[in-house]
């Protein structure tokens, strides 16, 4: 995948995060990335706009329109709590007095409802509050259980990550040790090869210095064809073999002469008789 970033950090086995200069180096990398990144105004155009209409009430829609049109907020009307008499010009009109009476009756009904709510709260408010507290306590206990489960899941994930990184660290250390061993062996082999090449080169130079200069009629093989063996050594071995062969022939002749002498002595003794 193009642009994919592979995170190869193993914080459970890696060391050196607390060393001097590591934090400064990381912050410098972050600053460099921030300098290179140039955000555009339309980098969120590919995302759809959030839909808030299912959560908007008519009152919220009207309020949003007022804010959008920059209109002032309407003040709270206290007219329903007032008991004004009819205007001075309508004191003789029955309808004006009728509206005032209806307004006063509505105010009285409202106050009666408030007093009734207070009486009901005194009678049943305690039990209702206790019931609310029980529901709230059950909700809190359920939330606590959910929180504990989330913490346990997080702990399990961290333990699995630590276990995986520990196993990976052992594997990496084993592979690193094996790699160091192979590199060391390769270095030793290369060193030995260089030394052997030096010895072979020195031996060839020595053989070339010891070998007699070639003549026109000389058809002897060169040291390269004799696998580095000098011709003089071969000739010396040949002369030694000839010498040894002559000595063996002389010894054979001496033994034959000695074997012939007793026969001569026997013949001389027979003649004397």
From TrEMBL:
Species name: Drosophila ananassae
Similarity annotation: Belongs to the SPF27 family.
Keywords annotated in UniProt: mRNA processing, mRNA splicing, Nucleus, Spliceosome
Gene Ontology CC terms: catalytic step 2 spliceosome; precatalytic spliceosome; Prp19 complex
GO biological process: mRNA processing; RNA splicing
Principal place of residence: nucleus
Protein name: Pre-mRNA-splicing factor SPF27
Subcellular location(s) of the protein: Nucleus
Location of region: Disordered: 210-273
Keyword Nucleus: yes
Comp. bias intervals (Polar residues): 216-246
Compositionally biased tracts (Basic and acidic residues): 250-264
